Amino acid sequence: MRAAILKAYRQDLVIETVPDPVCEPDGVILRVLACGVCRSDWHGWVGEHPRVKPGAIPGHEYCGEVVAAGPQARWAPGDRVIAPFILACGQCPDCQSGNSTICKSQRVPGFGEPGAYAEYISVPRAHNLARLPEGFSPVLAAGLGCRVTTAWHALTGRAAIQAGEWLAVHGTGGIGLSALIIGRALGARVVVVDVVPEKLRHALELGAEAAFDAREGDVAARIVEATGGGAHVSIEALGIEATANASLECLRPLGRHVQVGLPTGHTARMEINMNAVYMKQLAVYGTRGMPAWKYPSLLDMITRGVVDMSPLVARTVPLSGASAELRAFDGPMPPGVAVIDDLTR
């Protein structure tokens, strides 16, 4: 099969023919229908993710068609499925309590295991997979990736946002844009922060009530003023010190900060305004991914038209275009995300 391989950090991925993957007893082999290009992939591509080494096949935001199933898997050839990027064991106390995103023996394609920048992928622990609704676009399914699922769990499972509350979103990349769209669908009033005017205009078109350029003054103070006292919930969607502190400082007393952006490499440790946490008695949540059992509720909202995630996908590229998309993360990005929709070229 064809696969895009990381040969050296910050260098173009090399497309090679490699052996087809082997199906595990509890898993399936998928023909990859589409795969999202994610900022987390970029963290591995630049060498800042400890589990991504040269020789890796990236890709963790995928959907596909089952072409083979192990004897312990409940899927059959022809089934179309979507996968969370965290493949949990399903047996440990964390999984049994519904908290599979903290499974201590989780497996993550693209991060220590072959990913989906390839024509086929072996997916172990196929109990984590969810069936794609009839007629659901593979490109949109891959676009949900880890960004929509993570935003969904951040808002509903961690922050428990309520209709009428103010939601601040710091960074309008894939996760931030997802949080805006989902937050609006859940009845929240949304303000966004970015440094790209085009993305701020796009957010306003999607229903944000205010959009602030972080380069223009104290953005936290401006959010406090615009929301009449501060946001109830704030999403940090970049994983850097400046936005983490702005997220904390823009909250009203008893507000909830959710750390969604990935702090790794040189941003793994930050200087944080703990006085704001103390004085305003804030709640600080971390979140990563979404438990697989929450897929039906998310997919149901989309198929019923309660939430329209189609504005999220800005462009599709072939496998050979993945390197250019990874390089683009080095600078300000245009609105929306890219999805690989042709794994054959």
Automatic annotation (TrEMBL):
Gene3D superfamilies tied to this protein: Medium-chain alcohol dehydrogenases, catalytic domain
Keywords linked to the UniProt accession: Metal-binding, Oxidoreductase, Zinc
Domain Enoyl reductase (ER): 10-340
SUPFAM superfamilies in the record: GroES-like (SSF50129), NAD(P)-binding Rossmann-fold domains (SSF51735)
Keyword Oxidoreductase: yes
Record's keyword annotation contains Zinc: yes
InterPro entries for this protein: ADH-like_C, ADH-like_N, ADH_Zn_CS, ER, GroES-like_sf, NAD(P)-bd_dom_sf, Zn_alcohol_dh
Family: Belongs to the zinc-containing alcohol dehydrogenase family.
PANTHER family linked to this entry: ALCOHOL DEHYDROGENASE-RELATED, L-THREONINE 3-DEHYDROGENASE
Identification of the protein by name: Alcohol dehydrogenase catalytic domain-containing protein
